[in-house]
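Researcher: I'd like a structural prediction for the single chain below. Treat it as a standalone chain; there are no partners to consider.
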Amino acid sequence: MEIYLYAVLAIVAMNALPAFAPPTWMALIFFLINYDANPVALVILGVISATTGRGILAWYFRKFAHLIPTRFSRNMEYAGKYIESQPGKRYAILALFLFSPISSAQLFEAAGMMKSIKLKPLLAAFALGRTFSYSTYVTGAAALAATSFGEVLIAEIKSPWAIAFQFLMIAGLIALGSIDWKSKLHRHHIRRGTPHNL
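Model: Treating it as a single chain, here is the predicted structure.
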């Protein structure tokens, strides 16, 4: 049972980090190969732990948004209101959290700063999507068992593509918070002829 506790703690911590954490599937395969963990239990605990970690990440970005430059945090709040004002965009965001194979850290950071966005539906979509992806990784882990997991882990962490992608996601988050979403929201309300309070 200790092994499962260590797995839960490790995965929660990894998913609560804002950037440059190893992907969760690596932790799952590590515990599967090195400790002969039950694959079904590992996937279930992995999904719960990763979802918890992402929830913590979004929570502290929401809780401490006041420590971020005011203009940026306000733009992110208006971005959330803009998304909430259009049902189609709300569904698109849910689909992004459900199907996206990319690192989700910056997605949850953005959602955390968009205070009008409800986090529970995003976390539910994330959990559902990760149930399928983690199951796939764990099922295919036997092929990796014959290799050195440490070499795979180090190669992944040091991969120029992985590092560049993390920087790209951070740049995307910064760009998102630099858009004048208040003006976009105002124009949207004018086109629809709906009352608004900005």
